[in-house]
Amino acid sequence: MIPAIKRTAASAVATASQKQKYVPQDPHTPPADAEAFLASLDPMNRRLHEIAVDKLGSSYIMEWTHGYKAWKKTASTGSPQAAGLISNQLSSQSGH
Fold first, then answer.
1. Domain residue extents for the chain
2. pTM for the full predicted model
3. Exposed, middle or buried: residue 47 (CB in 10 Å: 0-12, 13-18, 19+)?
4. Could you give the CA distance from residue 54 to residue 61 in angstroms, rounded to a whole number?
5. Which terminus of the chain, N or C, has fewer Cβ atoms within 10 Å?
6. Which of 81, 48, 40 lies closest to 65, judged by CA?
7. CA dihedral in degrees (57, 67, 94, 79; nearest 10)?
8. What is the pLDDT of residues 73-92, one digit of tens each?
9. Can you tell me the distance from the alpha carbon of 82 to that of 75, in angstroms, rounded to the nearest whole number?
C-alpha cells in the first residue's frame, strides 16, 4: 500500500501562490506590408492564412510563416511575378 502524503499548511500556501491565472497574450501586430502579402495570395493560401489566424490566435505570427518569408524575399527583388511564384511554391510544398 502507498503511504498517504500529509499536506501541511505551509505547503498549501505555497501551492496556492504558485497557481497563477492565465492571461492571454495581446494579438500580434501585423507587419506594415501585410495587406500586400495577403493580396498576393491565391484563394487556397488565403484560406489557409484565415484558418491559422482563427485556430492559432495570438500564437500566429505572419512574419514567421514560410509563405511570408518567400514573398518578402521575392518582393524585395522587385520581381513582378512574386505573387505567382509564391502560389506555385506553396502549392508544390503542399503536394497539390
1. 40-96
2. 0.55
3. exposed
4. 12
5. N
6. 48
7. 160
8. 998 887 655 445 555 555 56
9. 6
